[in-house]
Amino acid sequence: MTEKKHKPRLLSGDTSTGRLHLGHWVGSIENRVLMQDDYDCYFIIANIQALTTRMDRPADVHQNVMEVMLDYLAAGIDPERSTIFVQSEIAAIAELTVFFSLLVPYPRLMRNPTIKDEIRDKGLGDNYSVGFLLYPISQAADILSFRADVVPVGEDQIPHLELTREIARRFNQVYCHVDPHTQDADYLKQGGLFPVVETRLSRTRRLVGINGPGPDGNLMKMSKSLNNAIFLSDDPDTVKKKIMAMYTDPKRLKATDKGSTENNPLWIFHEAFNPDKAWVSEAEERYRQGTIGDVECKRRLIDVLVALIEPMRQRRLQYEKDIHYVKSILQEGTARANETANATLMLAKEAMRQRYF
Q1: For 59-105, how does the pLDDT look when each residue is reduced to its tens digit (9 = 90+)?
Q2: CATH number at residue 98
Q3: Which pLDDT score is estimated for 2?
């Protein structure tokens, strides 16, 4: 393993709900791959959090852990530089979730906009579990179990990170007697146990899906459950099929019609993925003037996305041939993660005066 002793620690991960898509790539994974040399990286596959809305489908969650693991390796997460682990195998996370839940008032939890969005988007109504409501606190425990300094996230995860920061401050104040007026960067210097984690946003904060607007008239974010995603494991023919069917400007009926690039997935994708910024700028103007067609622009986007995705897909196919090796990487990473999280748990119990032996 690469020496990590003096590096700041990074924690990030994904819920095991299936294969990863381009929204995951621009939301966090691209950043993670680039940050591996400069940070002590821990990447969690959050299967317990997947169960909060899939408690009746444990076999799917189990399989999806491996789907995420394969996508991580294919995307460039290097087990020689980073630690990948399974959430449910880290008992310290569950115990810290309980302790942290004592620090969070119920009304504060329900003010989390991500919780409200999940309830709405999944059509849960009032039919959700206590475990589902604990999801943000569990995520805080994921991060604080490893005393991470930095978390790269997409825009939709900012509310969860703010709750994590609040929990870290509150624990440090109540149990480590840190002055509440302390600056976030100074909590450890003043005797706190948990860093007040910094967020690192991606260059593209929220990627929309390839379909049209939702019931509220707004473009929906890319999501497997909404069937509007392009996966990191899609083959070129699938990418082509999805892009050619992509929603654009519904008012533009032929190539010579003037079109709008605003809130248009075709141009959101070009701006996010096309490295030829000069072409994008020129083509956007031509699109607005009606001198370039959707088909030409879509074909250009297909080439861009295939160039990005195909190397990942090929690496994934190679890892799929030796799934036992992939599992061994995950097992070794989980063992290392347990050592780190257990050490944090013991320190937390000591601070809380709840360690007896």
Answers
A1: 999 999 999 999 999 999 999 999 999 999 999 999 999 999 999 99
A2: 3.40.50.620
A3: 45
Q: Retrieve residue 90's tokens.
A: 């880290």
Please state the domain count of the chain: 2
**What value does the mean pLDDT take over residues 223-250?**
95
Is residue 43 located within the same domain as residue 127? Answer: yes
CB 86 within 8 A of CB 336: no
Tens of pLDDT, residue by residue over 35-53, are 999 999 999 999 999 998 8
Residue 185 lies in a domain: yes
Domain holding 213, by residue range, is: 208-317
What's the pLDDT band for 296 if we cut at 50, 70, 90?
very high
